Amino acid sequence: MQPNNYATQPPIPSLKALERRDQFKLRRFALSPVVYPHLIWNLKMSSPTKTELPKVPTPLKNELAQFDSSKMKHAETLEKNQLPSKDDVQQEKVHNSMLTGVEGFERSKLKSTETQEKGVLPNADDVVQEKIHQNIVSGVETFDKNALHHTETKEKAVLPSTEIIQQEKGHQKLVQGIENFDTSNLKHAETQEKNPLPTKEAIALEKSAA
């Protein structure tokens, strides 16, 4: 029968015991005759003087002195752990299944394929249009300018007829008459507005119609 080794092993110290032991070691190290003077000197050198300390404004100092902590209300912090909805869980499952499918994919299961390129032949209309286009291009490229005949452009001035001349003369006379019109020859006239009153017969007819 094998001896029980667990009984002979020392108990595992707790976290608090380890923290106390470390603090005790640090305190002993700080209070040692070698380290303590240097520690005090560093504290004196690093600590600011009274003049170097930031000054608190007087209004803020008065508010802090008159502050009543009894007026504060007690509040409790509520930690909410929002659970995912059904849609979130479903999307997470789909995402995980896709990842596992991609990671565990075996390329050895793929089948080899060959790409077949098929050339589409033109129909009869395409062939005819292509021939026409080629004939036009070749005709323009092989065109002989020497076969052209020299021509001169004749500009003919069309003279107006007698009727058009008479109309133009009449129009010019009318314009000249308006431009040279003498307004001093006009006589002064007054417009008289007459409002004829209805006769007795018209009044009688109006009454009988009503």
From TrEMBL:
Pfam families: Thymosin (PF01290). GO terms for biological process: actin filament organization. Keywords: Cytoplasm, Cytoskeleton. One of its GO terms (molecular function) is actin monomer binding. GO terms for cellular component: cytoskeleton; cytosol. It is found in: Cytoplasm, Cytoskeleton. Gene3D superfamilies: Single helix bin. Belongs to the thymosin beta family. This is Thymosin beta. It comes from Caerostris extrusa.
